[in-house]
Write a structure and sequence with these properties.
The complex is a heterodimer. By secondary structure, chain A is an alpha/beta fold. Chain A contains 21 helices and nine strands. In chain A, strand 5 and strand 6 (about 460) form a beta hairpin. Chain A is globular and about 90 Å long. Chain B is mainly alpha-helical. In chain B, helix 2 crosses helix 3 (about 35-60), helix 2 packs parallel to helix 4 (about 70-105) and helix 3 packs across helix 4. Classes of the chains: A alpha/beta, B mainly alpha. The interface between A and B is large, with 39 and 33 residues.
Chain lengths: ~500, ~100
Amino acid sequence: MLDMKKKVFKKNSLDKLVFLSLLLICIIFLIFGVKEVYRIKYLYAYDPLRHMNIAKNVDSQEPMVKTIETYGGGKIKINYPSIMRLLTVTINKVTNLSYLDIYKLFGLFCRILTVLAIYITVKYLVKNKVAAVLASALFLSSRYVFYRSIITFPENLVLPFHILIFYDVIRAIREKKIPFTLPIFFAASLLIHYRSIIIPVILVGILILSRIYSYIMDRKLAINFFKSKALVRTILLILICVILSLPVLRLTIKQYTGYLERNIGQGAIWASFAEEDSHYIPPSQETYLSNIGIILCICSIFSLFLLFYKTNIEKLTLIAWLGFTFILTRGTQFNIYVPSGRMFTYFIIPSVIASAYLLKVFIEKYQKNKKVLFCAFSIALIFFFVTTLSETHGYQGISNAEIDVCSWINNNIASDNSVIIFKNTENSENNILYLHAGLENYKIVETRKETLNQIFKNGEIDKDRLRKFYPTRYIYLVTKGDNENNFENLNLDTVYNQNGILVYKISVP
Amino acid sequence: MLMILQLFRIILGLIYLLFLPGFILSFLLIKNEKATSIKRITLSITLSCFLVPLIVYYGNKIGITINTINIILEILTLIALFLTAILIRNLIRKRVILNKLKSK
């Protein structure tokens, strides 16, 4: 009886320790995250700015905004719809939080959710709470994970769903029964970020293949399946998934057939472009080490031995996930033209889950000093975590110069005028590439180069075309000072000149 | 005072949007004995993140405009539906158990 009480007490104290550690890790991460997010004036990159502006447009347009009305009369195609924007709209409406605050903080919220998903998945997979907490800390200690957390986009929200799909697949393999949550998570990941649906497709594909294999090996099992309620359950689950994902199902199929033509294979359209663009070049070993983190790299490499030792379907699923995401990070080498850098997040998650196998071996080896080991490892991780985070300063995509000119335009130019943004620079630093995203209230915001080239050619303005294209009284031309077209020689009326950005006022007779 | 009210609105609003619908649905989908508190919290938030925009989306498709009151009412309807489903399921379970006992 006394022994039993001691055991219960020990279990409870370990549970509390585990819970407190998880909480502590999340709090430290949030402190650094919030501090970093509010360090800069606006948003970190163009992506959240774009999503934020689409979310604002949701109020006046349909919820799954596929186009955004910024060009006079015309529309820009938004290349994918996502329910994440709709979620931010509901948060704005119900809590009255500003869109800027929501788009600053939502990425961090998604990351905490990812950590919780990793915790429950690892705990179920390796049956060890301590390993689960350490794996969660390992995930957050990655520099790349931190950097991506401060940017709000659908990729961040879809990650917990990918992990939970893996969790449900493992549950289905172990318990031989497909959980009801699996089709819901599948549909959710499709509706949030349908571009990355290939990962859940692979995970669910492995589950289906393993089932088919077991039915081929055992005919009785197959006959029982077709006779039992399991068949009805499976059909019902597929139906739930299809019904829930209806809004984007057709679009996803269309998009993926497009991917097959444009992005995959030696004849892909993106091939020549990818050779020149640094985002498409496979990362070096140093890039892997600096982005993923040294501890995580070491843990995941050693975990591979454990994964290949006494392999079962669960481990095979994880190997397939890990292998596929690794291939994605080195896309161009395999004739898959995807930006390598963006694929790191997808690769880090299976790496962290795989690392749990190694962590479990360590913990079990030093079973007697479990608490001491746990505390020592936690301190080491938190130390690493704190030093990494304090060094990480994310990429500041939107320059202050751009914010200043945008707010100047919004305050000084009436919205019934035309704004022309002449962007000829390929350099992402301090450019005016996405300025239009902050000027969505204007009647005409022109950025199309082919149209602008027709108006401004040979150092002159074709006023007839200007009048024809933009029938407003005044036209405001936004450009960088070092513009190759040299607008200074045209003696235009300069109304704004700050931080290397010029705004000219052109009156149309 | 206004700031405190705003803070309350944010906290309650976030719980209502990002936790409650998923939390109630989790009782329909997962058995009590199988779920730890962390698991239930995680599933509640993830399910809510999916359900809330989806119900607003379909609501808008049938002509309900996106505003604060409509969003609150839509979620309330969703919660009521889940609670009814839980009640019906429990009633069926009770009846099955009673029938079994009677037959014995």
